[in-house]
Input
Amino acid sequence: NMKVLVLGTGKCGSTRLAYALRDYYGANLVIEPFNKEYNDNKPIVMPVLEENTIVKCILGTGQSGSVDQDLFEFFLEYSLQFDKTVLITRRDQAARLLSVLHAQHYNTWNPDEKYTMMPWTMTPDKSYDDITSILESDKVLGAISSFMHIPIVYLEYLTSADREIAFKELTKIMMSHEEDSFDNMYDKHLDPRFKMNQNPYDKHGGI
Output
């Protein structure tokens, strides 16, 4: 039985990875328990962690247990309840930023719904705040990685069409005796055909 915390930066493949880990461990999956919008704006309640549970969280503004609490401190403390913490983001920060802004405009958040990137107009005043907030999550992820000595998994490698590259990336978070599960995880969740963004010009497996 494992309790695994998956921390991502938003539109970075964290849900797909959580799905893969859920199936591998045969675990329960809790998605963004501290995201009020995801939970119909209900009061935030610290989830009771049962054995064999995967919890996936986003390192974003308003996604910790308290609005006033520092994201780094909150998730560092929260991670102590887990057997394993997994960190994931995208190498291409510009592509991730574009995906998040697109999702804010067109509501393309659902990890189970594919979409095609559409144009939209950015307003300078609001977009600057959005961009600052979005990029801050990468800084928090990096700080957690450095403090806890945990490697960061990158979406572009994990979902590469080259299975050897994807396998190498997965070994960052899987123990040696678990690596035989790679083919099943890749075929069901990590293969680039599962990417949400169906833009044929997106060569990085967009989310």
